[in-house]
Amino acid sequence: MTRVIPLRITIRDCFVLILLLIFNTIHVTDMANNNMDLHSKESKLKEESGDKGVNFSGNDEYLKSCPFVDQEVPDCAALNYPCITCDRSIDCVYGSFCNYTCVVKPKIICNGSKTFNKTAMCRFCYQTEKWEHRCDQKANCNSLASPTKFYLTNCTVSDEIVCLGKRRFLKKIRCSWTAGTRWGTALILALTLGGFGADRFYLGHWQEGIGKLFSFGGLGVWTLVDALLIGIHHLGPADGSLYI
After folding, report:
1. Contact between residue 83 and residue 104 where contact means Cβ atoms under 8 Å apart
2. Which of 67, 133, 153, 154 is the most buried (most CB within 10 A)?
3. Which residues contact 200 (CB under 8 A, 6 or more apart)?
4. Which of 143, 163, 151, 79 has its CA nearest to residue 115?
5. Which one, of 208, 203, 211, 212, lies nearest residue 230 by Cα?
6. Three-class secondary structure of residue 134 per DSSP
7. Where does the protein principally reside (predicted)?
8. pLDDT tens digit string along 102-148?
9. What per-residue confidence (pLDDT) applies to 16?
């Protein structure tokens, strides 16, 4: 009969085993991190030594939007901001057309002279028309408030516009934004399911929607009033946005 020898494991053996597991885990993690660092360094080197062979520094960001190498070469006079810089004396007559002296920025490849004139209206960038610049829209104001609310935001002149001063400026614009609420959908809900408060729920007016639901649309009166208010755009979304 085979004799079974009992296996004895001491606390010391357990402690050594735990230490071995910890060291093995640390070793595997270090190897994985080293491999990741190696791959990231290789990819970074590939990007820096790509076919174009151009490294963009902080002052050369404009090259991402301008022709420099291995691209179709345009005429220098056809380039716009940020590929060129245009200067004009501020003593020009406002509203009149005058010549701006434009110079192509370094490292940009183009055909023709890199110094040329452009004819544009004498005005500062903040005096451009609203379709000639784009502004950052904010969604934290009430577009349906009376009187109309305005807020300050940053605006940037379009690249093809030539003007005096800074191309990015502050402007006070009307609070006008939308969250995707459709006027037609709200009106249909008011005319069909308005007695159950569906139009109010759709617009985000939850308390009024619950009131209409349990009062059967105010016995029909509230339903007709809301349909009229939505029809004339007096009742809008609860978040203060506009219909689309």
Report:
1. yes
2. 133
3. 206, 208, 209, 212, 226
4. 79
5. 203
6. strand
7. membrane
8. 999 888 888 889 999 999 999 999 999 989 999 887 767 777 677 77
9. 54
Bridge partners for 164 per DSSP: 124
- Per-residue model confidence (pLDDT) at position 57: 47
Continuous H helices in the chain:
11-48, 183-192, 198-203, 206-214, 216-219, 221-231
Q: How far is CA 181 from the centre of its chain?
A: 20
Residue 201 pLDDT exceeds 70? yes
Pairwise CA distance, residues 136 & 148, whole Å: 18
Q: Which helix (H) or strand (E) holds 103?
A: strand 97-104
The token pair at 87 is 């200067």
Question: What is the C-alpha to C-alpha distance for residues 156 and 164, in angstroms, rounded to an integer?
Answer: 13
Helix, strand or coil for residue 182? coil
Omega before 106 within 30 of 0, i.e. cis: no
Per mean pLDDT, which of 32-46, 68-82, 189-203 is the most reliable?
A: 189-203
Question: Is residue 237 a contact partner of residue 204, using CB atoms and an 8 Å limit?
Answer: yes
**Residues written for the chain:** 244
Is residue 95 predicted with pLDDT exceeding 70?
yes
CA angle 145, 213, 181 (to 5 degrees): 40
Unique residue bearing structure tokens 């291995």 = 70
Structure tokens at 8: 């004895």
